[in-house]
Design brief:
The chain has 5 helices and no strands. By secondary structure, the protein is an all-alpha fold. The chain has one domain. The radius of gyration is 15 Å and the shape is globular.
C-alpha cells in the first residue's frame, strides 16, 4: 500500500493579484454570516499574501498586534479593519439589498 502524504493548504500562497485578493475578500464577506472573526481571518490571509510586516507598517500597527487582530480568534475593532483594508490597497463598498 502506498503511503499518501498531504500538505496543508494555505490560501495566502494563491492570492497573487489585487483582483484575486478583492475577490477572496468579497467571497468571505458573503459567506461570513455576521462572523467578524471570520472576516478578520480572511484579512489575515490577504495580509500574509502581501507581507505581514509591510501591511503592519502601512496600517500603522505593530506586526504582533496585526497577527493577533487578524488571527480569527477574536473580532478586531472596526478602526483596525479599516486601517488594514487601506493598507492592503482594497476598499469597502455598499450596495442596496433589495429584499
Amino acid at each position: 500500500m502506498t503511503k499518501i502524504t498531504t500538505t496543508r493548504y494555505d490560501v495566502a500562497e494563491h492570492l497573487r493579484t489585487q483582483e484575486e485578493m478583492a475577490a477572496y475578500l468579497e467571497a468571505c464577506l458573503e459567506e461570513a454570516n455576521g462572523d467578524a472573526a471570520f472576516i478578520a481571518k480572511a484579512l489575515g490571509d490577504i495580509a500574509r499574501a502581501k507581507g505581514m510586516s509591510q501591511v503592519a507598517r502601512d496600517a500603522g500597527l505593530s506586526r504582533e498586534s496585526l497577527y493577533k487582530a487578524l488571527s480569527g480568534e477574536r473580532s478586531p475593532g472596526f478602526d483596525t479593519i479599516l486601517k488594514v483594508i487601506g493598507a492592503l490597497g482594497l476598499k469597502l463598498h455598499a450596495e442596496a439589498n433589495h429584499i
